[in-house]
Design goal:
mainly alpha; 2 helices; 70% helix; 5% strand
Length: 88
């Protein structure tokens, strides 16, 4: 297990954290703006409402919740890998 107080290890953890955050934010941004950008192309109707409404109102929040869960799990693994454990 690496020394959690070394500068090199802290820098490596910080870079991994930034990469994870940037990747998940890119996915979230793509969903947020992708639905709005392609909403007119999703011209189907579902229960009287446009399909794009259902994707924005139901699908996007579910994806955001999944992104938060992925982030929490990945950060726990990252902390364990770098010797930072909150449970200890």
């Amino acid at each position: 297990m690496p020394d959690p107080t070394s500068d090199a290890d802290l820098h490596a953890r910080w870079r991994a954290c930034l990469a994870l955050t940037a990747g998940l934010m890119a996915i979230g941004g793509g969903v947020t703006f992708g639905v709005a950008w392609f909403a007119r192309a999703l011209d189907a109707r579902l229960l009287g409402w446009p399909f794009s409404f259902w994707v924005a109102a139901q699908g996007a929040p579910v994806l955001y919740l999944a992104l938060v869960c992925i982030y929490a799990r990945a950060m726990r693994r990252l902390d364990e890998r770098h010797g930072i454990d909150e449970d200890a």
